[in-house]
Amino acid sequence: xxxxxxxxxxxxxxxxxxxxxxxxxxxxxxxxxxxxxxxxxxxxxxxxxxxxxxxxxxxxxxxxxxxxxxxxxxxxxxxxxxxxxxxxxxxxxxxxxxxxxxxxxxxxxxxxxxxxxxxxxxxxxxxxxxxxxxxxxxxxxxxxxxxxxxxxxxxxxxxxxxxxxxxxxxxxxxxxxxxxxxxxxxxxxxxxxxxxxxxxxxxxxxxxxxxxxxxxxxxxxxxxxxxxxxxxxxxxxxxxxxxxxxxxxxxxxxxxxxxxxxxxxxxxxxxxxxxxxxxxxxxxxxxxxxx
Length: 291
Hints:
The protein is of the alpha+beta class.
């Protein structure tokens, strides 16, 4: 069933975009910064476009800056907006360059994640971020199984077990699944292995990975996605398996389901791209903007 869903949704195209943010400074009104752990929305979601050209320039310490006409982009916290490499800078610049007459801040997800990494509004350390991410392993979507109806039980086993088996083999850990409301008891050795693995990410990449985990409500799916074992479309549909099952039986409000699905796919895709881009150390050998 899921494979058919994947094929169906693949025909509808791909979406790449996560949360909501709006930089400020002289150019912007102050907006509340979105945390990757909260689902809140800015009061101002759109604004009339005020610039013509977007460009990238080299900053101090090998960082890259984004310029709107001749003005430098800043974070909601008032810091100079900088990206650690050209690949991520290009992704952010592209978000600003593709805006039309109105700036739709809710679609500028790479910008949001960069702002979160730069401002760190909750003042969290890497250890705190890792601990928060691992909390999702205790309630991982793939670990909670139903006992009925039989068709849903079979669907969960057929679609979730291969991914669960993959991650256990990949990291030499034990996770398991359970029909209990408490979920499976995760061995301490498994938690230690994943803590060590998460610790190998830099602060920026960890910001993106934690965001993907929260979107999918699953450490297992997030790791499988970042390792390119599954696609964004598969990760999203696997995270919504029970909902898709119910829709297959009872139908749905088409527009509401589609908007929710595409939004989740967009945010998840952007988070995954952010992880890869923020880990990129090489320079992109091409010009971004043509004058």
